[in-house]
Amino acid sequence: MAFSKSTPMPTSLKPKNKLRRQQTYLAIKKEKEAAKRDMRHKRKREEAKDSSLREERLANNQPKTIDVKRTWDEGVADEEDMLGMAVDVEQLAKRRRLEQEAPEDADEDGVLAQLKKREMEDDEDEEDEDEQDDDADSMLDSDSDAEEDDDSDSDAPPKRKAPAPKRAASPTTSTATNLELSPEFLKQKFPALFAPPVEPKILITTSINSTLHKHAEILIDLFPNSNYIRRSAHFGAPKYSVREIAQFAKNRGYTHLIIMMQALHEKKPDGLDVVHLTGDTLGPHFHFSISNWIEGKKLPGHGNSTGHIPELILNNFKTPLGHLCAQLFKSLYPPQPQFQGRTVVTMHNQRDYIFWRRHRYVFREKKGREKPVLGSDNKEILENLKTGLQELGPRFTLKLRRVDRGVQYKSGQEWQWKGKMEKQRTRFNM
């Protein structure tokens, strides 16, 4: 079939010939790419002349994710009902501190205005410090320029260099969880969980007739001072309940009971129950679901655990329920880590999913092309140093389903998550 290379057909008309349709599509695509390329080059030339245009463009091009659109519950009156409320504990504590400092006749608008005023004052202080540093640098530059002018005899005008694009500073806000701001009603409802830390001793077991023995043995390496006892699958063996096992563990000095649940028709973990045992009564009882379980040996480039007590990173737990879970995770590890092991366990909460990771870190020299680590003041934190990470495993994801004051359902539920509970996608419980 003969084919003539003629001008493409208009976009409003759809050619009947397949080859002509392909040619028209490629021509339109090429034209769009050329227009985008010209726009990028034009923008690059304008930003080279004025660096503030680039900073303004990057500031405006922030993606609007669900995390950015997160909504909070307002008008919280009774603290006893705050466990299931989406309230930022840190912002609430700051607002109450301002209310105490404000006069008695100050209304809500005045408190919010003071909060904004204090944030603006902090920003102004940071800007003043940056201006002082810039002035000092400019004085040094002026002296060096004057010396060069004295030494040079040529009358040629100096060449003006284009300003180098500034690298955006690291975020000043931290998502680390400050457990010192936990509400008082949590400490009253769960006094054993918020008591002074003790050396944990953990008993690990599985659900009845479970085959997850290798998975449970991995938890022994993940949690220090832990022991694993199998629940017998023999037909004539006694079937002890969770309450009886928890009482058995408490009488022998255990502080926590961890039960790994197996999926109904699969040989993989499906849930993780954690029972706190240090109080006068058994509980609280936390029910988590497990997903995306990956053993350490299946991770590419994984390392082997050395058995040292790790450091903890509790990240992005903001609500009272999130602080309760963070306090539980904190109680599972000894209070004093062994820094010579260079091991860190991270529990990162994002959209009510808790991502559990374990790494080993090492400090190494920075290579030539690697970018430095900058602080909030846009200065290098570690000179010629970088941090390397090696994942040890296991890797899994938790989601909180229910919190019982005692063991199982009998003692009443403090909080429960049900399917299709999120009527609003931008509201999260933790």
TrEMBL record:
GO terms for biological process: maturation of 5.8S rRNA; maturation of LSU-rRNA. Residues 1-10 have a biased composition (Polar residues). PROSITE patterns: BRIX (PS50833). It comes from the Eukaryota. Residues 28-37, 45-58 have a biased composition (Basic and acidic residues). GO terms for molecular function: rRNA primary transcript binding. It comes from Aaosphaeria arxii CBS 175.79. One of its GO terms (cellular component) is nucleolus. Pfam families: Brix. This is Brix-domain-containing protein. Residues 1-80, 94-180 are annotated as: Disordered. PANTHER family: RIBOSOME PRODUCTION FACTOR 1, U3 SMALL NUCLEOLAR RIBONUCLEOPROTEIN PROTEIN IMP4. Gene3D superfamilies: Probable brix-domain ribosomal biogenesis protein.
